[in-house]
Amino acid sequence: MKNYCVTWELELDADSPEEAARLAWKFMRETDANCNCFTVCDDEGNVTQIDLEEENQKGGLNGNR
To answer: How far apart are CA 28 and CA 22, in angstroms?
Structure first.
């Protein structure tokens, strides 16, 4: 099994780094949030951009993810 670092980015306005983190966390937890684009880096430094919505539309993901 390989080790991966997965990041998701969101630009927003806030009064502090802590507020920005809390706003992002709140957004991610919303049921209708559009949090489907990720940057994935493996332990060898290979970086891949993944759009899960695009993969789902292609039939690459099952409905449980």
So the answer is: 10
Q: How many domains does the chain have?
A: 1
Q: Range of 32's domain?
A: 4-58
**Model pLDDT for residues 22-40, shown as the tens digit of each residue:** 999 998 888 777 788 899 9
**20 belongs to a structural domain:** yes
Cα-based angle 24, 5, 64 (whole degrees, multiple of 5): 70
pTM exceeds 0.70: no
Contact 27, 13 (CB under 8 A): no
Two tokens, residue 59:
């039939």
What tokens appear for 1 in the block?
A: 């099994």
Task: Output the pLDDT for position 64.
Answer: 44
